[in-house]
Structure formats: structure tokens, C-alpha cells
Specification:
Blueprint (H helix, E strand, L loop, with lengths): L7 E4 L4 H8 L5 E4 L7 H9 L5 E3 L7 H11 L5 E3 L21 E2 L2 H4 L3 H14 L4 E4 L2 H8 L1 E2 L12 E5 L3 E4 L7 H9 L2 E4 L4 H6 L6 E4 L6 H4 L7 E4 L3 H7 L3 H28 L7 H13 L4 E4 L4 E4 L23 E6 L1 E3 L2 E2 L2 E6 L5 H19 L2 E2 L4 H13 L10 E3 L8 E6 L13 E4 L2 E4 L3 E4 L2 E11 L2 E8 L17 H18 L5 H10 L4
Parallel strand pairs: 1-2, 3-4, 6-11, 9-10, 11-12
Antiparallel strand pairs: 5-7, 6-8, 8-9, 13-16, 14-15, 15-18, 16-17, 19-26, 20-21, 22-25, 23-24, 25-26
Helix pairs in contact: 2-3, 11-12, 13-14
Length: about 525
């Protein structure tokens, strides 16, 4: 939010320490959000700007949901709202053009469901919602619906475009030249027309009066929404594809399990290398992140990392979304905790994992905090719950061991993960908000509790889990989780006195399973090292 007298950045507790440091001298002030993702800056306007002031935003950069929040909150108070103002364009020198990287299609053997079948599933839902047409603006929804991937966004295998879907036609709006002649012919065979990226606005403006179109207010920008004529009925609802893609089919799940093996091999080699080379004094946060990327790149089907690796040594581990820079880059020493949160994009799945290891001279407080975080990870992973359970209930189950000792963490417990798509995927989420999305069989979600001591260290232990049907009883249908991530959990940091026997059994069984899954893919030296790391406690 920028006014003549003030510039502020609103962000949540994951970034408080980082933002304070990075905003110093910038002219921007840190404003701490009370509720994660809440548009609290809108309320700030009503308290700080006089009635009649003009509030503007760029409708290409604001979702319909955010735009409506601004308009519905401020307009009744006498403020003038303009959603089509771009103040950055005229002053942004050497602004990059839109990417022209090639896009490509995925075979059914990878996706488990054809483009034709996915479009049919979307159209069936449009009928139930009485919508004549549907516009997909969100890139991961478009990628899933049309089985298309690209490299337009770093770490996310998506392609810039829009998809217009009605009973009689499907149009992919994409920059010319991004698709090969073979891909265009393939789409045409599915009944999908290819048109220029910018032509979507003309399509929307030309919709006939009385037509109804479904748009997702969270996943559609205001400028697109505002292109729709007044005589067209707009149905604001979640993209049908968003829930459909969150529920992975059997082919996607099988591929994901394979990707986890490849990822586990890379991680085993990585942690062994760190342990054996830290004494050199030459390892740094940046260099180990680069080496981990190299190890992943050597695995079958690797395409990219799934997000910028968070390698946080000592105090940097207390910044949940820390990103090392040449200025902040710490050299590793033979003491303290190292947190590594990383992931890979493979043709057979997307991974996301966090581990914490000891580099030496660990304190009793560090062990205690590590064990409570581990206890939370285990509690969430072992959860058995009735069908219809929401993510905030899993969040509470996971936090319980820490809440009992007056500990807590400021981020959510888990997020959905795509299949060779975005590492953060909706609509389900494991956090404290009352998100009314049930956990469905086939959903893949992270479980990642943490504890952070500013200026000292951070701890987070993250696995991905698959929601599965368990069995029925006279009291209903029940579900549980299958852990998908395959990488040992360090036991030299565990204070056994804090764990119950059920937690110890889970940890021992998990580490034994990790060894059994990976041993055939490792050298003798690597197997010996991993065998020692996975010994029962």
C-alpha cells in the first residue's frame, strides 16, 4: 500500500524477521498481519485516508476476490475506486517480455486421464451449476485440464494461457509458437482450438446477453472479470478443475511413489555428503543448495526444483521462508542445526521435504524442541479420522504435542501438492482457518510442524502424505494417511523421554521402511551410511 506519506508491506509471521531486515532503508514499513492472507490493508485505508480519497489498483494483478473486498468495503464509505490503474508500467525500465518458452503435452500413461475425459468431467460440473461457459485463468488448473506443461514460471511446470470451455467448444489462448505443430494437431483432435493469448478479452466481451459464465473469484484477475459484458450472468465459484486435480488418480499416485524413491536417493547422497564434508569449512548455504539441485538433476525424469531451496543454518533456520543471498550466505561449521527445505519437479510427480540435522555440539534445548516437532509430525501422520474431516482438524491434531507445552508455530501445518504441478495446490489446506473443504481420498498434503527461536535456530520436519480410505465401522467411514516421502529422520537429535512408545515405534518403522525402499538404488558405502542412520532407537 503506497500513499503520498506512507508505504507499507503487509505480511504474516513467516516473514516478520526477514521483512524487517530486507525493508530497512527501502522506504517501506513492515505491517504485521494478524491473520494470514487476510486483506487487512483495506481496513487500514478506512482508518488513515480521508473520505473521498481515490484508491487504485491494477486489475491485472489483483484477483476478483481482492478487488471485490476493496470495492465492497471502501465504496460505501465514500472512497472512489479505480481497478484499472498501472503505475508501475511507465516507470519500469527494461521490463521483461512474456516468456516464449515451448509448451508440451503429457501422455495418458503419465496423467492417468485423457484431456477429453477431463474436459467432460468439467463440463458435467458446469451443467450442475447452470453455467453455459467457464474461463480458466489459473495456470495449474489450465495445465491439469489440458494435460499441458511448460517452463514459463520458475519451479512450476506451467504455461501462460487461458482456457475457455463451453458445451460446444474449448479454446486454449496461448502465445503463438509455444506449441509444436504436432501438439496443435493433438489438441485439434481433442476438439480444442488454439487462439492467440490476447484474444481471450475479445472472446469475453463478445459473450451474448443472457449467457452464464463460471469464474473463480480467487483464481481470476479483476481485469478479466471486468471484460465480461453487463448482460452476461457471472457465476462466482471455485474452478471445477481445482478439486478434480487435487484428488490424484491411481496412475498419478503410482508415479508419485516412484518420484519419491528418486528424490530419496538424491537426499541420501546429499546428507551423507554434507556430513562428510562439513569439516572442510567450505560448505555454505548456497553451495549445498546448488549441490542438492545437481543430485536431483541426476535422477530419472527430473525437470526442475519445485521451489527455491531453503538451506538455513543456525539462526537462518528460524526464518521459515529464508532464501540465502551472497550477503547472508553462511558457512557451515561443526556445530548447530541445519534446516533444509527442498523439493523436485519430476515427470512423475512433485516433492517437498524438510529435514533438520545436527552438525555438532547440540544443546538440550535444541533436542527438546526437535523432539516436540517430531512428535507433532508423527501425530499428524498417524491420524485416523472420519470422512468429512477438514484440514483445520488435522492442523489441531498435529499441534497438540506442542500446545501441551505452550509451544506453537505461525504457519500452517500443511498444503496440497500437485502432480508434476505447483508445489502449493488448493483447495484443501491444513491450517487454523475454517476452510470448508473435506479431505478426500487421493489428496496429497504436507505435514510440516515447526518451532523457531529468533536469532538461534529453526526446526521443521516435513513429509508428504496421501489421504486414503481406511475402513467403516458402525460409527461411520474412516480415513488415514500413507506417508509418501522417503528420507530418513535424524534420531541423534531425539530426546526419547519426550516420546511415547507409539511415537518411537512409528519412527523406527518409518526409518526401516526408508532403508528398504532405497537400498537397491545406493552404493555399498551409501547403504552402510544409511543403515546406521536408520537404526532403531
Amino acid at each position: 500500500m503506497i500513499t503520498q506519506e506512507f508505504a507499507g508491506l503487509w505480511t504474516d509471521s513467516r516473514y516478520f524477521v526477514q521483512a524487517k531486515a530486507q525493508l530497512e532503508g527501502s522506504g517501506f514499513e513492515l505491517v504485521k498481519l494478524k491473520v494470514q492472507h487476510a486483506p487487512e490493508y483495506v481496513q487500514w485505508v478506512s482508518e488513515h485516508l480521508p473520505t473521498g480519497a481515490k484508491v487504485a489498483f491494477d486489475g491485472n494483478l489483483a484477483s476478483l476476490l481482492v478487488a471485490n473486498t476493496i470495492k465492497n468495503t471502501l465504496a460505501p464509505l465514500g472512497y472512489t475506486i479505480d481497478g484499472h490503474v498501472d503505475l508501475l508500467g511507465p516507470i519500469w525500465e527494461n521490463r521483461p517480455t512474456l516468456p516464449v518458452n515451448p509448451a508440451y503435452t503429457l501422455p495418458v500413461s503419465t496423467t492417468g486421464q485423457s484431456t477429453v475425459d477431463k474436459l467432460a468431467a468439467i463440463k458435467a460440473q458446469l451443467k450442475t451449476k447452470r453455467a453455459d461457459a467457464h474461463l480458466i485463468s489459473s495456470l495449474d488448473d489450465l495445465a491439469w485440464a489440458l494435460n499441458v506443461r511448460g517452463t514459463d514460471v520458475p519451479c512450476n511446470p506451467v504455461v501462460l494461457g487461458f482456457a475457455f470451455i463451453s458445451e460446444n467448444e474449448t479454446i486454449l489462448y496461448i502465445t503463438a509458437g509455444k506449441l509444436s505443430e504436432e501438439a496443435v494437431a493433438e489438441f485439434n483432435a481433442y476438439g480444442v482450438k488454439i487462439q492467440p493469448y490476447e484474444a481471450v478479452y475479445a472472446k469475453l466481451k463478445g459473450l451474448a446477453e443472457g449467457t452464464s459464465i463460471l469464474v473463480d473469484p480467487k483464481r481470476t484477475c479483476f481485469a478479466v472479470y471486468d471484460s465480461i459484458p453487463a448482460g452476461v450472468q457471472i457465476i462466482e465459484d471455485m474452478n471445477p478443475s481445482t478439486l478434480l486435480k487435487a484428488i490424484k488418480n491411481e496412475v498419478e499416485v503410482a508415479h508419485t511413489r516412484n518420484a519419491m524413491v528418486n528424490d530419496g536417493v538424491a537426499l541420501t547422497k546429499f546428507f551423507k555428503w554434507v556430513e562428510e564434508n562439513v569439516a572442510s569449512g567450505e560448505l555454505s548455504e548456497i553451495s549445498i543448495a546448488d549441490y542438492l539441485a545437481e543430485l536431483r538433476a541426476a535422477q530419472p525424469g527430473f525437470k526442475d526444483i519445485s521451489f527455491g531451496t531453503i538451506a538455513g543454518y543456525k539462526a537462518h533456520g528460524a526464518l521459515p521462508h529464508y532464501s540465502a543471498t551472497p550477503e547472508s550466505n553462511s558457512l557451515l561449521e561443526q556445530n548447530g542445526l541445519l534446516l533444509v527445505d527442498s523439493g523436485g519437479q519430476y515427470e512423475t510427480g512433485t516433492t517437498d521435504i524438510t529435514r533438520v540435522i545436527s552438525l555438532g555440539n547440540i544443546t538440550a534445548a535444541e533436542k527438546e524442541d526437535y523432539t516436540y516437532v517430531l512428535k507433532g509430525t508423527i501425530e499428524g501422520s498417524m491420524a485416523i479420522f472420519p470422512k468429512g474431516t477438514r484440514g483445520y482438524q488435522i492442523d489441531a491434531i498435529t499441534r497438540r504435542p506442542m500446545w501441551q507445552t505452550l509451544r506453537n508455530y505461525g504457519h500452517g501445518t500443511g498444503h496440497g501438492v500437485g502432480f508434476f504441478l505447483n508445489v502449493h495446490e488448493g483447495p484443501h489446506v491444513f491450517n487454523g482457518t475454517a476452510t470448508d473443504i473435506a479431505i478426500e481420498p487421493g489428496m496429497i498434503t504436507s505435514i510440516e510442524p515447526g518451532l523457531y527461536k529468533e536469532g538461534e535456530y529453526g526446526i521443521r520436519i516435513e513429509n508428504l502424505v496421501l489421504a486414503k480410505e481406511l475402513e467403516s465401522s458402525p460409527y461411520g467411514d474412516f480415513m488415514d494417511f500413507e506417508t509418501l516421502t522417503i528420507c530418513y529422520i535424524a534420531t541423534d537429535l531425539v530426546d526419547k523421554s519426550i516420546l511415547d512408545q507409539v511415537h518411537i515405534d512409528w519412527l523406527n518403522q518409518y526409518n526401516e521402511w526408508v532403508y528398504n525402499q532405497l537400498e537397491s538404488h545406493l552404493s555399498e558405502d551409501e547403504k552402510t551410511w544409511l543403515r546406521a542412520k536408520t537404526q532403531a532407537i
